[in-house]
Amino acid sequence: MKKINIGILGLGTVGGGTYDILRDNRDVIRRRTGVDYEVTRILEINQKAIEAHGVDPSVVTQNVDDILSAGDIDIVVESLGGIEPSSSWMLKALENGKNVVTPNKAAVAANYGKLKKAAEDSGVQIRIEACVGGGIPALTAITEALAGNVFTEVMGILNGTTNYILTKMGDEGLPYDEVLKDAQAKGFAEADPTADVEGIDVANKLSILMALAFDQYVPPQDIPTVGITGVTMDDIAAARDRGCKIKLIAKAAVAGDGGLSCEIRPMEIPLDHPLAGVNNEFNAIYITGNAVDEVMFYGKGAGALPTGSAIVGDIISIMRTEALK
Amino acid sequence: MKKINIGILGLGTVGGGTYDILRDNRDVIRRRTGVDYEVTRILEINQKAIEAHGVDPSVVTQNVDDILSAGDIDIVVESLGGIEPSSSWMLKALENGKNVVTPNKAAVAANYGKLKKAAEDSGVQIRIEACVGGGIPALTAITEALAGNVFTEVMGILNGTTNYILTKMGDEGLPYDEVLKDAQAKGFAEADPTADVEGIDVANKLSILMALAFDQYVPPQDIPTVGITGVTMDDIAAARDRGCKIKLIAKAAVAGDGGLSCEIRPMEIPLDHPLAGVNNEFNAIYITGNAVDEVMFYGKGAGALPTGSAIVGDIISIMRTEALK
């Protein structure tokens, strides 16, 4: 049985979830892939995280080069977050012939071209399913099962925090400020919610979706973006009167002349549109292709295990590819 | 550039759709895969179909062995339908070292184990994405991107004809017989609708879903199945009073003791459940896994191009695997 060694950079929420799935679902993953694997090294300084996940201390390192430059690591999971040093570390891992899996949308949106090229030059893969929509396997669908399509439009509800806030404003009739406080208390919103409520997180995700669906790179900061801080109860009532819900929608479409348009803003979605049924912390990606027509993927856009599911799916894909080599 | 030769058995609705996508999206498929391909042989006697798709007559044969036993065919698309001779022909193709792609749910539900084993013995693939949910890439998600999960439940609206009829009964207040006639006139239901309205088509699909998600084979005829012919306007009104819609639901779940339960019958779905928003001819597959939690896939469950999209996705996956060999 082929054996794959995995190194994990960061045992935070997502890295920890990934570790737990690899441990708990080991039998089924081995049977399905015919490949054995082991997490042989983890970069982490937080002793509580190491203990919480029951990690053997001999696996833990505080030196990133023990993973990036190790001869015996096949796959590096980069689950640290932030553009740097994550991007440089992923590049180094790829240059050293290691496959990379990451949920780091900010780093990928900023440096996808460079990362992709480094992977190609080394004959390895960088896989990024967890960057958009958490556990929802939409990116893999775009690049694999739906790859026979010319895509004409992608639309999505790509941020759970803002979708939770808009859902509560609509369902419970509470204004933005009050719902935000409640969401923060429940852990659905960060203490500093700027990246979520201003659409910055969504812009990273739409940039990645466009790169994959349309093969065109638009930097996140170039996407016209309006967050949800200006949505009032009057807006929500007016939308309801028109048979609509307000959702923070990321949208990109190819025009007849081949030009690409994109925007992120609160939009009115008719109640009978499938995206109108995507509520609370759920996410969805709605894609139109010239063969498949309209298809939608729905699920949890965040969280340790859903996001870990996407990372483990990418690891499995790499294991199967390595087994063919 | 690696070159793959494709043979197609049957240029009917789905075979024809597949042929059209392979021709029309050729540039984008070549660029995405780095592999070239050609449809080098088609089994078909219907001259009108051959002309309608603009097929070069030199590609057409009436002898199936020109495809199954040809030394120069890498992938066989079996788009004839029916359990036999399709199953025997797929087995022969696999035994001869050819990859097989099929939308033939009846043949796959009857013979999945045999087909899978023949593929493994020959070191090739049988891919069946188009068997369930038309263009919706749910099977690939289960076996690939979500393969890190232990699945606990699958639920689906797996038949467009019955979903169209139930939607119209609910929306327009027309009884079953009238809606069926209208659906037949519009081409959404067959002249003999038995396989659809009695749930036989759905049973084939649920059998396949269970084989992939739970690695357990339940023959379609062993699945407790109730179709939609007994659904009355009173049932629909009573469901509405309870805040529900009636949908023909296929459901399978793993019990705590590891036992598998399954059934197909009209069920009441609460209006706030994502499956309640799946209307008309659309299909959806709703899956629960121990890592990803709940995820849903939505799209067109039938039709030449959506089903062709799934077949071409499978062809692309095989081309990428062959390119690694």
Explain how this protein is built:
- The structure is a homodimer of 325-residue chains.
- Helix content of chain A is 43%, strand content 22%.
- With 325 residues, the first copy, chain A, is α/β, with parallel strands linked by helices.
- Chain A folds into two domains: 2-135 and 305-324, NAD(P)-binding Rossmann-like Domain (Rossmann fold), CATH 3.40.50.720; 140-300, Dihydrodipicolinate Reductase, domain 2, CATH 3.30.360.10.
- In chain A, the strands form two sheets. A six-stranded parallel β-sheet of chain A has the order 3-2-1-4-5-6, with helices on both faces. In chain A, strands 9-8-7-10-11 form a five-stranded antiparallel β-sheet.
- In chain A, α1 packs across α13 (304-324) and α5 runs parallel beside α6.
- Chain A is globular and about 60 Å long.
- The model of chain A has no long low-confidence stretch (mean pLDDT 96).
- Chains A, B: Keywords: Amino-acid biosynthesis, Methionine biosynthesis, NADP, Oxidoreductase, Sodium, Threonine biosynthesis.
- Chains A, B: L-homoserine binds at residue 190.
- Chains A, B: The active site is at residue 205.
Please sum up the structure shown.
Two copies of one chain form a homodimer. Chain A is an alpha/beta fold and 325 residues long.
Largest sheet of chain A: 6 strands, parallel
Report the total helices of chain A. Answer: 13
* Unreliable sequence segments of chain A: none
Tertiary shape of chain A: globular
For the largest sheet of chain A, list the strands in their spatial order.
3-2-1-4-5-6
How many distinct beta strands of chain A? 11
Structural class, from helix and strand content of chain A? alpha/beta
**Remind me, CATH topology of the largest domain in chain A?**
Dihydrodipicolinate Reductase, domain 2
Order of helices and strands of chain A: EHHEHEHEHEHEHEHHHHHEEEEH
Distance between the termini of chain A: 13 Å
Instruction: Give the CATH architecture of the largest domain in chain A.
Output: 2-Layer Sandwich
Biggest interface reads: A-B, 58 and 58 residues
User: For the residues shown, what is the average pLDDT of chain A?
Assistant: 96
How much of the sequence of chain A is in beta strands? 15-25%
The whole-angstrom Rg of chain A is 20 Å
CATH superfamily (homologous) name of the largest domain in chain A? Dihydrodipicolinate Reductase, domain 2
Oligomeric state of the chains in view:
homodimer
Q: How many structural domains in the coordinates of chain A?
A: 2
